[in-house]
From TrEMBL:
UniProtKB keywords: Signal
Keyword Signal belongs to the record: yes
Keyword Amino-acid biosynthesis: no
Region (Disordered) residue spans: 28-79
Taxonomic placement: Bacteria, Bacillati, Actinomycetota, Actinomycetes, Kitasatosporales
Bias (Low complexity): 28-65
Protein name listed in UniProt: Lipoprotein
Signal sequence annotation: 1-21
Biased composition (Gly residues): 66-76
Length: 205
């Protein structure tokens, strides 16, 4: 009886090998799935399926990073390119950024010149950026001075009122109502010997 049992086991093993050899290549994954069950019933080792699981992950993440890097580079290029009409409103204007003033004995102010810059800090728009060292400006006897009120409307004011409000803003204090501080930048018209003929407070958030 023992010989018959060994013979039956040998026949079953030979039949299992014949089935796996006859499967087509396209169904190799199915064959690998059914083979461990047959070997387990015959007392074989199951770890034969482990290599398939360890080889399944794919390096897709590295491709994603390179694509994102290319997109970021394109976006940066677009942001730094000035809009077609960004500098249209700045042409022919002179804007200064005040740094110091005096008006008790002699009326004067020191201010830096500015350059109009398009983006990227203000997308699709621009701003005046101070450049270089402050220069000394005096004021014409007939100078026209304007301050912005709480509604951002330029109002004509006396030179003394203007200088006092400017001084408060330079010292980071609040000027008398209805005037406010908006970045110490002013649009000016300058005549001979650096004399200011008109000066208007500009809004800058």
């Amino acid at each position: 009886m023992r010989l018959n049992r060994f013979a039956v086991a040998a026949v079953l093993a030979a039949a299992a090998l014949a089935l796996t050899a006859c499967d087509p290549e396209g169904s190799s994954s199915g064959a690998s799935g059914s083979a461990p069950a047959a070997t387990a019933s015959a007392g074989g080792s199951a770890p034969a399926a482990a290599p398939a699981a360890s080889g399944s992950p794919k390096p897709a993440a590295s491709g994603g990073k390179s694509t994102a890097g290319g997109t970021a580079g394109g976006t940066t290029g677009k942001a730094t390119a000035p809009a077609a009409d960004c500098t249209a409103g700045a042409a022919g204007r002179t804007v200064v950024e005040a740094t110091e003033n005096a008006y008790l004995t002699h009326v004067w102010m020191r201010a830096k010149s500015t350059e109009f810059v398009c983006g990227p800090d203000v997308p699709g728009d621009g701003y005046w950026e101070a450049q270089g060292d402050p220069r000394l400006y005096s004021f014409d006897n007939d100078v026209k001075t304007y301050l912005l009120d709480e509604n951002l409307k330029a109002k004509s004011v006396d030179l003394f009122v203007f200088m006092k409000a400017q001084e408060a803003c330079l010292k980071q204090a609040r000027p008398a109502a209805p005037y406010r501080c908006f970045g110490n930048q002013y649009e000016v018209k300058v005549g001979a010997q650096n004399k200011v003929l008109s000066i208007t407070q500009l809004y800058r958030p």
